[in-house]
Design a protein that fits this description.
single chain; 151 residues; 4 strands; 28% strand; disordered N terminus
């Protein structure tokens, strides 16, 4: 697809014609390889509502967040900031995924911006037997569940 750009940096907004806005670097997670790719769809806008983030929630637990606010421009960028930072604050205060998304929903309603956000809030936790990945979605049908058996 012509005109798509690729980056390995996290994004909090859409592109400005060259690359997504940069946020803190991805954490190093021993035993896990992280890769981030971002391809804007359609016409390039100055700012928009796509965001993703990975951050530690403890020594052996990480949050993985992906979201999309409808629309583009300053209003979508403002809603993106509300959503992203509310989820992070909730998680840092010990909220589970569903609670982090509920905090975000309340904050978005209080913002009175008449835009909606879809998001997936996931956690990755090291366990004695390997890894536990938990995912909570808002704004779309529930994600499918899969499990890999040993062997």
């Amino acid at each position: 697809m012509a005109g798509r750009r690729q980056t390995t940096s996290p994004s909090t907004t859409s592109v400005d014609g060259s690359s997504p806005a940069r946020v803190a670097t991805q954490p190093e997670i021993d035993g896990i390889s992280l890769a981030v790719r971002y391809w804007p769809a359609g016409a390039v806008t100055i700012v928009g509502g796509d965001f993703y983030d990975v951050y530690p929630l403890g020594d052996e637990r990480w949050a993985i967040v992906i979201g999309d606010v409808c629309g583009s421009g300053p209003n979508a960028a403002a809603v993106t900031a509300i959503a992203r930072h509310t989820m992070r604050a909730a998680a840092m205060h010990g909220a589970a995924g569903v609670d982090a998304l509920e905090w975000t929903n309340l904050a978005l309603h209080a913002g009175n911006r008449d835009l909606f956000c879809t998001a997936v809030f996931s956690t990755l936790e090291r366990t004695p037997g390997g890894w536990c990945f938990t995912s909570t979605a808002a704004g779309h049908p529930l994600p499918s569940s899969c499990a890999r058996t040993a062997g």
